[in-house]
Amino acid sequence: MRLTSEQAEFAAAVRDFAQTEIKPVIGDFYERGEFPANLVRDLGKLGVFGVTLPEEHGGADEGLLMLGLALEEIARVDASVAVTVEAAVTLGAEAVAQFGTDEQKHRWLPRLASGQGLCAFALTEPSGGTDAGHTDTRARLEAGEWVIDGAKCFITNAGTEMTDLIIATATTGPGEVSCIAVEPGTPGLSVGPEYSKVGWRASDTRPVYFDGCRVPEANLVGQRGEGFHQFLHLLEGGRVALAALSTGSAQGCLDEALAHAKERESFGKPIATNQSIAFMLADMRLRAHTARLAWMDAAVKADDGESFGTDAALAKLHASGAAVDNARDATQIFGGYGFMNETPVARAWRDCKILEIGEGTNEVQRMLIARSLGV
Q1: CATH architecture entry for 5-117
Q2: Catalytic annotation on 176?
């Protein structure tokens, strides 16, 4: 599809930042497992975190397509920073923007839109996994406060120096799930140590615990008992965003593999001249191209107010598979060098598998697609 001049300029600005600011340094952050706070703040200055949020609260109100363009360009060089943005916006700030009260929006959105603060969405539980409706975390009203008890796992952006807000799902009555916002430093809230992850090592992922954690009744985000429907809606947008991120990873693997294949010589000629390598590169191009078409189509439907749940599932399923396949092929083209952690394709090989798991496993996406077919 053709981008507007504004969309193309925004994508180009993010691409330039990713290539000149993120790419030269992210390998060291990744190796240390360190969160790159300054890079994240600088992305905020570009407007990346506020692109979908209301203008009256510091955002640009531009929609999911514009956010996807940014995520693709960032993920082209690093998925850790990209998922930091994706989770903070589609599952975090968007929860406040779409379901929060006017007071909550005025209180929290300006910093979230500027990228000076991050929002975490605490959904997954140790006993739940894919069954997100299985919510053991409990919250009860007591003297005008929610008292929360429970545990969450695999929560992105929960423990950074920039974390402003954690929105948690909790059972608030029989068959009733609600979303409640908790600010860091609230007594009874504790955030566990950073996980030792296979990939996404420069992003922040931790468990979160609530032990008699008290927050004002006004911290309820959305209607009581509507939390299940709220997070299902948020996940649809999150899947489109993750598909854009996956496309960026697939494209980044192609970029690196193509450059290497043109430079690396074997038996006196560049390995790109070998048909087996050339065909592999052609397949990588095809995957990245079709993944881009899929996520953009879903994003346009979302921005136009159309139903896009099935399109989001299609995009997420296809793009995540494209990223995994391209990471595998790029590693193969790099040969032994592709097994070294300092190469971008080695990082991609470690990063991409989670794309088939996060925002609903690919098995869930197939289930949703099959359901749309009436089977």
Answers
A1: Orthogonal Bundle (1.10)
A2: no
